[in-house]
Design goal:
By secondary structure, the protein is of the alpha+beta class. The protein has one helix and three strands, in the order E-E-E-H. The chain has a three-stranded antiparallel sheet with strand order 1-2-3, with helices on one face.
Length: 70
């Protein structure tokens, strides 16, 4: 799989897990006990998000690469 969407990855002390947010795909998030597991889970969730969007006839955002936040 070739993911081109930005992923924001951080450790959550509360959840005791790495969390991943994909800002360009509304509501698309994943987690994992390790950094690598979180990224792998995010790749799966991204694919599922895209497949579901296609089934529902929704627009799939084009990856923009690095997003800038203020």
């Amino acid at each position: 799989m070739s993911n081109k969407y930005e992923m924001i990855i951080y450790w959550s002390e509360e959840d005791k897990a790495f969390l991943v947010e994909i800002p360009e795909l509304s509501g698309c998030k994943a987690d994992g006990e390790t950094y690598q597991q979180a990224v792998e889970n995010a790749e799966i969730v991204i694919q599922e998000w895209i497949e579901t969007a296609k089934e529902l006839g929704r627009i799939i955002p084009i990856p923009k690469g690095r997003l800038m936040y203020a």
